[in-house]
Structures are given as C-alpha cells and as structure tokens.
Amino acid sequence: METLLEGRCEMPYFTDLRLVFRAIGDRQRDFNWLITDLEYGWLGVHEDDEQPPFIGSEPHWRTGEELTRLVAEHDMQFVWAVLSGFPPDVSLDLCRLAVVPYADGNAGFWVDEPRIQHPLAEVEIVCWDSTSTLLLCRDRSIGESFRQYFPMAVDLAEYNKARRTSR
To answer: Over the stretch 70-87, which tens digit does the pLDDT of each residue have?
Structure first.
C-alpha cells in the first residue's frame, strides 16, 4: 500500500515522525530501521553540549525502540529521509549496503506502481523536502491506519496516474 500525505493537514510540519508513529499505531516498534538520505532540523530547546540524535550523513541503524525514544525525546523536523523498516531478524552491514534508499531526486516514487526501495524492507517512510510524507508498506493494515489518522492522505499510485493524465 502506497500513500502520500501533503498540503494542509493535521501535521504541523513535514515530517513530524511522532505523528507518523501515532498514525501507524506505534508499529514502528515492530521493526529495525535503516535511515538514509537524512537531512533534519533539531527544533526546540536543547543544551549546547547535547549530542545530536543523528551524526553524519552515513546510513544509521536503529531498533524500533531506539527510534521511538529518539523521536519522543527530541523535537526534530525530518526534511529529507528514507526510513526503511525491517523485521527484527534482519541485520545489515551499513558499510556494504547493496541498496541505499534515497528520497532527494528519486523519480521512482512518481511512477504508476511505486515500490519500497530495499527488497528486505517491510515498510518505508519517506520525508520529502519538508512538503510531504510518503508511506509504502507491505502490510495493508499499517497503510490503512495511516490513512484513517490522516484523512487527507491519498493513494500514491492513483495520485501519480491522475497527475500524468492531467498534463
């Protein structure tokens, strides 16, 4: 199930992962997360000597619990990012990734049948240039929960087809 959320909605800024997690019924805890193509802003008050939640531009790997805690403890706006969720029994060597999911410049989201980029991932949350959030998932219940929470969310494949035919 592929979903697009953009424009004015219940999300005060794109992308607030706290709301995304709430919208998917906290299912992020069920996965380990590969975080790539990350550009984020650290909002709110924090100590000058406090360590940022993510350091460097290289891929990051977090358990669902770690990611949940980071997002809950830090007020962050994810500008660009791909968060790929994997079953807990999957492990990846971050230095030898065969597939590095990316958002910025990725035309693969705007096709008839968009797909999760990493073949082993079950879910993909894409933070798109502070303007939208894409959710791609193999488990329809996750996508349905997201769409129920955000009624303005639309089917990404249908959006792409309508956009192409209106040209």
So the answer is: 999 888 899 999 999 999
In terms of pTM, does the model score above 0.85? yes
Q: Which two tokens stand for residue 67?
A: 């990611």
Q: Phi and psi for 3 in degrees, rounded to 5?
A: -135, 145
- Which 3 state secondary structure label does DSSP give 45? coil
The full set of domain ranges for the chain reads 2-165
Count how many residues are written for the chain. Answer: 167
Buried b (16+ CB within 10 A) or exposed e, 119-152: eebbbbbbbbeeebbbbbbeeeebbebbbebbee
